[in-house]
């Protein structure tokens, strides 16, 4: 089952939630788009684009955006949100991006999705293929410490886990828990080195909107984000 299959069941609910939620709007998006830097004039591939929240921001910052998601509902919502300004397609990222030529993207964005894939190295290699030699991949994923604090057991466990995406909603997902060592090894095996690692701090606005989440994330990270560069 792909992430698109999982999210398709609650795509509209999640899209409405993510627009203004604590962890999406005031934590992950600011962090990942900050790592992306100045995108004006760049070609950006939004992998697992979801309902188009990152794509819209990238377009507003002057990027040319193409991307995909396995969920048809997400792609429909993303096209609506971006007003037809982006080339967004229904595509399962477990399969090659046959419609994207080698070395055509200056930047690839992969937000909160890599942990859904069984073969993460294959995915990362395909994303590396579409990058220019001087390009970058920015991605975010759950911090392994947050996973360990929630699930217990050994921090070093590498296994898929089935749970709800949200404590408030019945949104079943299947995602991989793994220690930082495994994540970094997969980056290198796929042909990347880490240019920057970010353990985000919550946006200041979260303190007013979601004070409990803000206090929690000021004490312990929920996500981590990376800017990766292709190895020579």
TrEMBL record:
A molecular function (GO) term: S-adenosylmethionine-dependent methyltransferase activity
InterPro entries named in the record: Diverse_substrate_MTase, Methyltransf_11, SAM-dependent_MTases_sf
PANTHER family the UniProt entry points to: METHYLTRANSF_11 DOMAIN-CONTAINING PROTEIN, METHYLTRANSFERASE TYPE 11 DOMAIN-CONTAINING PROTEIN
The keyword Transferase is assigned to this record: yes
The UniProt record lists the keyword Iron: no
One Pfam assignment: Methyltransf_11
GO biological process: methylation
Gene3D superfamilies recorded: Vaccinia Virus protein VP39
Keyword annotations of the record: Methyltransferase, Transferase
Domain Methyltransferase type per the UniProt entry, residue ranges: 46-139
Family: Belongs to the methyltransferase superfamily.
Protein name from the UniProt record: Methyltransferase domain-containing protein
